[in-house]
Amino acid sequence: MDRLNAKLYLQNCYIMKENERLRKKALLLNQENQALLTELKQRLAKTAAAAANNNNAKANGNAAAAGNRAPIPDLNATAPGAHGGHEKRAAPKPKKAAAN
Question: How far apart are CA 84 and CA 87, in angstroms?
Fold first, then answer.
């Protein structure tokens, strides 16, 4: 009976040691998981902020994103000095008299 009791005691000690080892490992894995989750959230926030800045730049005609580039001209607008096709035309040349 004492032998069985000693054997069970040793098994119990082994199980408690293994339990403690697994508890420490779980704690480390949990800490690593939390750190990775924090890093992921920071990257997502940075990406979202960059996308928002990109959208704002597009909404502002890319002025902020393009630096000091000249604006792109509107090809559909009338040229400066044009009056919608109502320009003064030169007087027609006089016709020559027909020879008889």
Answer: 8
